[in-house]
# Entry
Amino acid sequence: MSMQKPHPPSPSRRDLWIAFLCGGLVAGMVGLSFAAVPFYSWFCRTTGYGGTPQVANTAPTEVSGRTVTVRFDSNVAAGLPWRFEPERRTIDVRLGEVVTVYYEVINEAARVTAGQAGYNVSPSTTGIYFTKINCFCFTEQTMQPGEKRDMAVVFYVDPKLAENSELDGVKLITLSYTFYPAQVPDQAAAESGPPAKSGRI
# Structure
């Protein structure tokens, strides 16, 4: 007479419910990790946290008599063969005055390269008042071998800065850019040719 092997006990409803909750928790954590980056970026742009400048489409309606000095800083991360420098290191601007300055960028490599700029201002508490209307940092930049380019940034310092008594002692604001390597578009790499002429964008 053969004996049948006992069947393993079936999972209880409680075990299935716990497994479902754990799976949902893991999926939720993964979703939050992807959402965290754009949310953090939005938060910084909205509040100026960490010295993140604001973005606007129009100029302010008033110009203050108060003047601040804006210093321009430029950096290139490792792995990107670019020379990157502002046309001038400092400029005195009145609050609310729209200013355009240029940075010179040269691709020193014998190949097509691409980069994108990260940016911030210091002191970080001035980020909410430093507003850019146009900037090369908004888009990825692709440079041909030996190409030289003048890149513009159009900005103003919001007159509301003068209403913040905690910033009465601020005389200098530093706008800092760092270019980081980016993936070269396939079409740009295929169309690589002789060095391009200098031009302003």
Q: What stands out?
A: The helical segments are 13-47, 186-190. The two ends are 91 Å apart (CA to CA). The longest strand covers residues 172-182. Residues 28-50 have pLDDT under 50 and may be disordered.
